[in-house]
Design goal:
Layout (H helix, E strand, L loop, with lengths): L4 H10 L8 E2 L1 H8 L3 H13 L4 E3 L3 E3 L5 H22 L5 H13 L7 H16 L5 H14 L3 H5 L5 H16 L3 H25 L1
Antiparallel strand pairs: 1-3, 2-3
Protein backbone atom coordinates (compact mmCIF):
# COMPACT_ATOMS: atom_id res chain seq x y z
CA UNK A 1 0.00 0.00 0.00
CA UNK A 2 1.48 3.34 -1.06
CA UNK A 3 1.15 5.91 1.71
CA UNK A 4 0.78 9.64 1.21
CA UNK A 5 2.76 12.06 3.37
CA UNK A 6 0.09 12.29 6.08
CA UNK A 7 -0.02 8.52 6.45
CA UNK A 8 3.76 8.21 6.34
CA UNK A 9 4.01 10.54 9.34
CA UNK A 10 1.23 8.64 11.10
CA UNK A 11 2.99 5.36 10.41
CA UNK A 12 6.22 6.71 11.87
CA UNK A 13 4.35 7.90 14.97
CA UNK A 14 2.85 4.43 15.42
CA UNK A 15 6.26 2.81 14.95
CA UNK A 16 7.82 5.11 17.55
CA UNK A 17 10.06 6.96 15.11
CA UNK A 18 8.55 10.10 16.60
CA UNK A 19 8.23 9.51 20.34
CA UNK A 20 5.24 10.54 22.41
CA UNK A 21 5.84 14.08 23.65
CA UNK A 22 8.46 14.76 20.97
CA UNK A 23 8.45 18.14 19.23
CA UNK A 24 8.36 17.98 15.43
CA UNK A 25 9.59 20.74 13.17
CA UNK A 26 8.81 21.45 9.52
CA UNK A 27 12.46 21.37 8.50
CA UNK A 28 12.92 17.95 10.09
CA UNK A 29 10.00 16.47 8.16
CA UNK A 30 11.02 18.16 4.93
CA UNK A 31 14.45 16.56 5.13
CA UNK A 32 13.22 13.16 6.30
CA UNK A 33 10.64 12.71 3.56
CA UNK A 34 12.39 14.66 0.81
CA UNK A 35 9.59 17.15 0.19
CA UNK A 36 9.25 20.93 0.29
CA UNK A 37 7.86 22.80 3.28
CA UNK A 38 4.51 23.49 1.59
CA UNK A 39 3.23 19.87 1.69
CA UNK A 40 4.81 19.50 5.14
CA UNK A 41 2.87 22.51 6.41
CA UNK A 42 -0.38 21.12 4.95
CA UNK A 43 0.37 17.74 6.50
CA UNK A 44 0.93 19.24 9.94
CA UNK A 45 -2.32 21.16 9.68
CA UNK A 46 -4.24 17.97 8.87
CA UNK A 47 -2.54 15.96 11.60
CA UNK A 48 -3.43 18.62 14.15
CA UNK A 49 -7.06 18.63 13.00
CA UNK A 50 -7.18 14.83 13.40
CA UNK A 51 -5.62 14.82 16.88
CA UNK A 52 -2.37 13.17 15.84
CA UNK A 53 -0.36 16.29 16.71
CA UNK A 54 -0.96 19.15 19.15
CA UNK A 55 0.36 22.69 19.37
CA UNK A 56 3.60 23.23 21.25
CA UNK A 57 4.79 26.77 21.89
CA UNK A 58 4.11 29.59 19.47
CA UNK A 59 4.59 27.76 16.20
CA UNK A 60 5.66 24.20 16.99
CA UNK A 61 3.82 20.90 17.24
CA UNK A 62 4.42 17.72 19.17
CA UNK A 63 3.19 14.15 19.31
CA UNK A 64 0.64 13.94 22.15
CA UNK A 65 0.98 11.33 24.84
CA UNK A 66 -1.77 8.73 24.71
CA UNK A 67 -4.36 9.52 27.33
CA UNK A 68 -6.88 7.20 28.97
CA UNK A 69 -9.50 9.95 29.18
CA UNK A 70 -9.19 10.77 25.48
CA UNK A 71 -9.47 7.05 24.65
CA UNK A 72 -12.57 6.82 26.84
CA UNK A 73 -14.19 9.82 25.15
CA UNK A 74 -13.51 8.32 21.73
CA UNK A 75 -15.10 4.95 22.48
CA UNK A 76 -18.08 6.55 24.24
CA UNK A 77 -18.83 8.70 21.20
CA UNK A 78 -18.24 5.83 18.78
CA UNK A 79 -20.45 3.45 20.77
CA UNK A 80 -23.37 5.88 20.52
CA UNK A 81 -22.96 7.14 16.96
CA UNK A 82 -21.88 4.04 15.07
CA UNK A 83 -24.75 1.69 15.99
CA UNK A 84 -27.12 4.56 15.11
CA UNK A 85 -25.45 5.01 11.73
CA UNK A 86 -25.46 1.26 11.08
CA UNK A 87 -29.18 1.17 11.84
CA UNK A 88 -29.78 3.85 9.22
CA UNK A 89 -27.96 1.70 6.66
CA UNK A 90 -29.99 -1.47 6.99
CA UNK A 91 -32.81 -0.69 4.57
CA UNK A 92 -30.34 0.48 1.92
CA UNK A 93 -27.40 -1.94 2.22
CA UNK A 94 -26.80 -4.25 -0.75
CA UNK A 95 -25.16 -7.66 -1.14
CA UNK A 96 -22.35 -5.93 -3.03
CA UNK A 97 -21.63 -3.63 -0.07
CA UNK A 98 -21.67 -6.55 2.35
CA UNK A 99 -19.32 -8.34 -0.03
CA UNK A 100 -16.98 -5.35 0.01
CA UNK A 101 -16.89 -5.44 3.81
CA UNK A 102 -16.09 -9.17 3.67
CA UNK A 103 -13.23 -8.55 1.23
CA UNK A 104 -11.76 -5.85 3.44
CA UNK A 105 -12.00 -8.09 6.50
CA UNK A 106 -10.10 -10.81 4.65
CA UNK A 107 -7.32 -8.32 3.98
CA UNK A 108 -7.20 -7.61 7.71
CA UNK A 109 -6.26 -11.26 8.31
CA UNK A 110 -2.79 -10.46 6.94
CA UNK A 111 -0.54 -10.44 10.01
CA UNK A 112 2.22 -8.56 8.17
CA UNK A 113 0.31 -5.32 7.65
CA UNK A 114 1.73 -2.14 9.14
CA UNK A 115 -0.36 -0.63 11.94
CA UNK A 116 -1.44 2.31 9.78
CA UNK A 117 -2.65 -0.15 7.12
CA UNK A 118 -4.60 -2.13 9.72
CA UNK A 119 -6.22 1.07 10.92
CA UNK A 120 -7.17 2.14 7.42
CA UNK A 121 -8.61 -1.27 6.55
CA UNK A 122 -10.53 -1.44 9.81
CA UNK A 123 -12.17 1.88 8.96
CA UNK A 124 -12.86 0.71 5.39
CA UNK A 125 -14.69 -2.31 6.83
CA UNK A 126 -16.91 -0.17 9.01
CA UNK A 127 -17.32 2.50 6.33
CA UNK A 128 -18.67 -0.06 3.88
CA UNK A 129 -21.48 -0.79 6.34
CA UNK A 130 -22.17 2.84 7.27
CA UNK A 131 -22.06 4.49 3.83
CA UNK A 132 -25.49 3.16 2.70
CA UNK A 133 -27.12 5.33 5.37
CA UNK A 134 -26.30 8.37 3.19
CA UNK A 135 -25.89 10.62 6.23
CA UNK A 136 -22.85 12.66 5.26
CA UNK A 137 -22.44 14.77 8.41
CA UNK A 138 -22.79 11.83 10.77
CA UNK A 139 -20.57 9.65 8.59
CA UNK A 140 -17.82 12.31 8.52
CA UNK A 141 -17.98 12.70 12.30
CA UNK A 142 -17.62 8.94 12.75
CA UNK A 143 -14.77 8.87 10.23
CA UNK A 144 -12.88 11.50 12.21
CA UNK A 145 -13.34 9.57 15.46
CA UNK A 146 -12.02 6.41 13.84
CA UNK A 147 -9.09 8.27 12.31
CA UNK A 148 -8.09 9.58 15.72
CA UNK A 149 -8.58 6.18 17.35
CA UNK A 150 -6.01 4.56 15.03
CA UNK A 151 -3.34 6.02 17.33
CA UNK A 152 -4.27 3.38 19.90
CA UNK A 153 -4.06 0.33 17.61
CA UNK A 154 -0.59 -0.54 18.81
CA UNK A 155 -2.15 -1.56 22.13
CA UNK A 156 -5.13 -3.34 20.56
CA UNK A 157 -2.97 -5.49 18.29
CA UNK A 158 -0.04 -5.73 20.72
CA UNK A 159 -0.24 -6.27 24.49
CA UNK A 160 -4.06 -6.36 24.59
CA UNK A 161 -4.13 -9.10 21.92
CA UNK A 162 -7.61 -8.24 20.62
CA UNK A 163 -6.89 -8.84 16.93
CA UNK A 164 -8.55 -12.27 16.69
CA UNK A 165 -11.51 -11.17 18.80
CA UNK A 166 -12.05 -8.11 16.61
CA UNK A 167 -11.87 -10.14 13.40
CA UNK A 168 -14.37 -12.71 14.64
CA UNK A 169 -16.78 -9.99 15.74
CA UNK A 170 -16.55 -8.44 12.26
CA UNK A 171 -17.48 -11.80 10.72
CA UNK A 172 -20.32 -12.36 13.18
CA UNK A 173 -21.68 -8.88 12.47
CA UNK A 174 -21.80 -9.58 8.73
CA UNK A 175 -23.68 -12.83 9.29
CA UNK A 176 -26.26 -11.03 11.42
CA UNK A 177 -26.72 -8.33 8.76
CA UNK A 178 -27.09 -10.92 5.98
CA UNK A 179 -29.73 -12.71 8.07
CA UNK A 180 -31.47 -9.39 8.74
CA UNK A 181 -30.98 -9.74 12.48
CA UNK A 182 -30.52 -6.02 12.63
CA UNK A 183 -30.98 -5.37 16.34
CA UNK A 184 -28.48 -8.09 17.15
CA UNK A 185 -26.04 -6.58 14.66
CA UNK A 186 -26.35 -3.16 16.31
CA UNK A 187 -25.92 -4.69 19.78
CA UNK A 188 -22.81 -6.56 18.63
CA UNK A 189 -21.36 -3.41 17.11
CA UNK A 190 -21.92 -1.51 20.36
CA UNK A 191 -20.27 -4.21 22.46
CA UNK A 192 -17.47 -4.51 19.86
CA UNK A 193 -16.62 -0.85 20.46
CA UNK A 194 -17.31 -0.69 24.21
CA UNK A 195 -15.42 -3.82 25.26
CA UNK A 196 -12.34 -2.87 23.24
CA UNK A 197 -12.58 0.68 24.56
CA UNK A 198 -12.91 -0.33 28.20
CA UNK A 199 -9.99 -2.74 27.88
CA UNK A 200 -7.90 0.00 26.32
CA UNK A 201 -8.73 2.53 29.04
CA UNK A 202 -7.94 0.00 31.78
CA UNK A 203 -4.64 -0.82 30.09
CA UNK A 204 -3.64 2.82 29.69
CA UNK A 205 -4.42 3.51 33.33
CA UNK A 206 -2.22 0.60 34.38
CA UNK A 207 0.96 1.74 32.61
Amino acid sequence: MKLDLVDRVKSDILKGVFARGQTIRQQELSERYGVSRIPVRDTLTQLKSEGWLVKCGKAGVKVPKLDAQVAEDLYWMRSILEPKLLGMSFEHITHEQIGKAKDVNLLLDNEHLALIEKGQLNWQFHAALYAPANRETLFETVRRLNTQAIQYLGFQYGPMARRNVSQQEHKDMLVLIENRQYRDAQALLESHIVEAGMSLVDYLKSI
